[in-house]
């Protein structure tokens, strides 16, 4: 199956895994879930919207990454998935 | 009822008034235990229970000088479990991850009340879940000494690990298989518990250095091993390599120098963590550069302080506990490395406790709020992760109290509008040093004045919080906590805050 992975499980980073899907699913496992769950989901949704991707499966294992890190990891994971596709 | 910090405390307790309120209180001293003519030798931990009729509802105390290698508390817990004794209060000076067996005894109702200065690891989990039937009382190191000497914490049997014991019952911390250095936290237990038992794995004819005076000792038990040396003293703690931590340490030292704290004869204490150690290292560099000799260092000490003593940069070390083997050796060999009791260290009712003579202390924080109140007892979810230890004692005593921390840890801002739990009241916290800037407590107009022309980035704590919110986003509110599980007791015995069950 096609997957794209980016990031690490180090503190302040996130590991993001994406796979093609026929609907949007976002799963977040975060060390700061109680405080930032909604914000992490929002960053992922906004990034996908900007990339014009509607249907995809996103798994975010977050170790306290800031928004720009999550965004960068997600974009890299998507491009790695697409590279395999090409 | 609310205390002066706006925290709910039980109506049956005295709420915190102020850090200096102890000055208007009387010291209460119960008589010391009767002198013992000659200690008896018992064959096993089991025999202690028979000899001293340890039974339901009693209070047993322990110390944590064997730290994460301690086997004595664990073996006593196993005996409690076998005998099915119920409703015990245990009062170890700290509880570490290797004391996991406590969790089982809480769940089974063997242990229903706990009194300690620090708790970390599996034992904390059932307490967070609300399974401790009674309460967890969290003291400070100095406050525990006050609680014992005043009879507020009555100990039926003190079961004290001791690395070497002689036939007169004198105990030493620097000899034997499990040498751990000074035994400062157990000195009140030794003098005021109804019965005192030393547990050792090394019997000698005569100890070279007396840390426990045999006249208080009722019985001695020799077992195979009191602890795992690996967990007792760490190897030399390394200074942090994290560039952010190093910048914080450099700025903290520069602040102290510019504020005139580092001057001939000054005294210091820093914690054992990597950043605190880096502060000590930077201060030492400054001392060498400017040829400034200090007077003493105190605390839990380590090899860095032992070197400073050896090289003559400080005249004395006042030591309650040794963090590493170099400190143990220094205490054993250097007559200017002195052992002190927890009471002499931080009991507010001692005449001149060491903490009151400190020029500065550098401490950590899991949270700090806009009033400079510090939490090192819970995380931001309210889960137990530590406790005061000497935090509140030194923060009160030291002329300048510096908190060093990154602005956020794994995204979560350290500066809050209100800390989850108050370990140390803000009136005793003077300076917050972060990687983005330094905030001075508005109460310290003298420090603000001294730093007026400093090149260091000085701003308000509100501004620092705003920066961290910009970077991390504002954390969303968490679920309301459950029932009260414990109390945070200030060093004078008043209640700072309550601890709550996590739902």
Compute the number of helices of chain B: 15
Question: What's the total helix number of chain A?
Answer: 2
Based on CA atoms alone, the radius of gyration of chain B comes out at 22 Å
CATH class of the largest domain in chain B: Alpha Beta
Low-confidence stretches of chain A: none
Subunit organisation of the chains: heterodimer
CATH topology of the largest domain in chain B: Glutaconate Coenzyme A-transferase
Explain this structure.
The complex is a heterodimer of chains A (86) and B (503). Chain A has two helices and four strands, in the order βββαβα. The radius of gyration of chain A is 12 Å and the shape is globular. By secondary structure, chain A is an alpha+beta fold. In chain A, strands 1-2-4-3 form a four-stranded mixed sheet. In chain A, helix 1 (33-50) crosses helix 2. In chain A, a hairpin with a 6-residue loop joins strand 1 (4-7) and strand 2 (14-20). Chain B folds into two domains: 43-232, Glutaconate Coenzyme A-transferase, CATH 3.40.1080.10; 243-478, Glutaconate Coenzyme A-transferase (3-Layer(aba) Sandwich). Helices cover 26% and strands 20% of the residues of chain B. Chain B has 15 helices and 27 strands. The longest helix of chain B has 17 residues, at 274-290. Chain B starts with 39 loop residues before the first strand and ends with a strand. The chains are: A alpha+beta (86), B alpha/beta (503). The A-B interface holds A 11-12, 31-32, 34-39, 63-67 and B 380-381, 408-412, 471-473, 475-476, 478-479.
SSE map:
The complex is a heterodimer of chains A (86) and B (503).
Chain A: E1 4-7, E2 14-20, E3 25-30, H1 33-50, E4 56-62, H2 67-85
Parallel strand pairs in A: 3-4
Antiparallel strand pairs in A: 1-2, 2-4
Chain B: E1 40-42, H1 45-51, E2 59-62, H2 72-83, E3 88-92, H3 101-107, E4 111-116, H4 124-128, E5 136-138, H5 141-149, E6 157-161, E7 164-166, E8 171-172, H6 187-192, E9 195-200, E10 203-204, E11 219-222, H7 229-232, H8 243-258, E12 268-270, H9 274-290, E13 296-301, H10 303-310, E14 316-322, H11 325-333, E15 337-339, H12 342-346, E16 360-363, E17 367-369, E18 374-375, H13 391-397, E19 400-404, E20 408-409, E21 412-413, E22 415-416, E23 431-433, E24 438-440, H14 445-450, E25 458-459, H15 461-472, E26 484-489, E27 495-500
Parallel strand pairs in B: 1-11, 2-3, 2-6, 3-4, 4-5, 5-26, 6-9, 7-10, 9-11, 12-16, 13-14, 14-15, 16-19, 17-22, 19-23, 24-25
Antiparallel strand pairs in B: 7-8, 17-18, 20-21, 23-24, 26-27
């Amino acid at each position: 199956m096609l997957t794209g992975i980016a990031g690490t499980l180090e503190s302040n980073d996130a590991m993001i895994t994406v796979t093609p899907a026929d609907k949007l699913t976002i799963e977040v496992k975060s060390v700061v879930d109680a405080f930032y769950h909604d914000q992490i989901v929002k960053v992922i949704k906004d990034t996908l919207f900007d990339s014009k991707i509607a249907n995809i499966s996103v798994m975010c294992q977050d170790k306290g990454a800031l928004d720009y890190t999550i965004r960068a990891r997600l974009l890299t994971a998507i491009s790695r998935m697409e590279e395999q596709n090409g | 009822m609310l205390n002066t910090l706006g925290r709910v405390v039980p109506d049956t307790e005295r709420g915190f008034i102020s850090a200096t309120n102890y000055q208007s209180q009387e010291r209460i001293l119960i008589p010391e235990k009767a002198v013992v003519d000659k200690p008896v030798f018992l064959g096993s931990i089991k025999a202690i229970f028979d000899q001293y009729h340890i039974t339901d509802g009693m209070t047993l105390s322990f110390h944590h000088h064997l730290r994460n290698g301690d086997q004595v508390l664990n073996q006593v817990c196993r005996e409690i479990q076998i005998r099915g004794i119920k409703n015990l209060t245990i009062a170890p000076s700290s509880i570490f991850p290797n004391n996991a067996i406590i969790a089982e005894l809480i769940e089974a109702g063997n242990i229903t009340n706990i009194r300690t200065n620090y708790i970390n690891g599996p034992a904390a989990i059932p307490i967070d879940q609300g399974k401790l039937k009674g309460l967890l009382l969290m003291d400070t190191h100095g406050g525990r000494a006050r609680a014992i000497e005043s009879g507020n914490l009555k100990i039926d049997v003190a079961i004290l690990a001791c690395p070497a014991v002689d036939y007169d019952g004198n105990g030493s911390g620097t000899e034997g298989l499990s040498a751990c250095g000074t035994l400062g936290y157990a000195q009140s237990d030794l003098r005021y518990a109804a019965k005192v038992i030393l547990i050792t794995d090394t019997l000698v004819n005569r100890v070279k250095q007396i840390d426990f005076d045999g006249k208080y000792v009722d019985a001695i038990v020799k077992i195979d091993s009191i602890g795992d040396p690996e967990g007792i003293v760490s190897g030399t703690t390394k200074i942090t390599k994290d560039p952010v931590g190093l910048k914080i340490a450099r700025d903290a030292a520069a602040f102290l120098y510019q504020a005139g704290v580092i001057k001939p004869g000054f005294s210091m204490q820093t914690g054992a963590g990597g950043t605190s150690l880096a502060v000590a290292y930077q201060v030492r560099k400054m001392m060498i550069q400017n040829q400034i000799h200090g007077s003493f260092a105190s605390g839990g000490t380590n090899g860095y302080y032992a070197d400073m003593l050896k090289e003559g940069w400080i005249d004395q070390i006042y030591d309650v506990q040794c963090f590493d083997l170099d400190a143990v050796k220094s205490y054993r060999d250097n007559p200017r490395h002195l052992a002190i009791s927890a009471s002499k260290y931080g009991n507010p009712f001692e005449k001149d406790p060491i903490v009151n003579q400190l020029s500065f202390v550098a401490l950590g924080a899991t949270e700090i709020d806009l009033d400079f109140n510090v939490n090192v007892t819970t995380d931001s979810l309210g889960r137990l992760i530590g406790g005061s230890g000497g935090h509140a004692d030194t923060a009160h005593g030291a002329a300048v109290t510096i908190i060093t921390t990154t602005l956020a840890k794994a995204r979560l801002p350290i500066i809050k509008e209100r800390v989850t739990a108050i370990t140390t009241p803000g009136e005793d916290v003077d300076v917050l040093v972060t990687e983005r800037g330094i905030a001075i407590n508005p109460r310290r107009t003298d420090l603000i004045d001294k730093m007026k022309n400093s090149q260091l980035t000085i701003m308000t704590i509100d501004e620092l919080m705003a920066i961290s919110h910009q970077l991390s986003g504002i954390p969303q509110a968490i679920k309301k906590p459950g029932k009260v599980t414990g109390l945070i007791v200030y060093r004078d015995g008043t209640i700072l805050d309550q601890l709550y069950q996590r739902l």
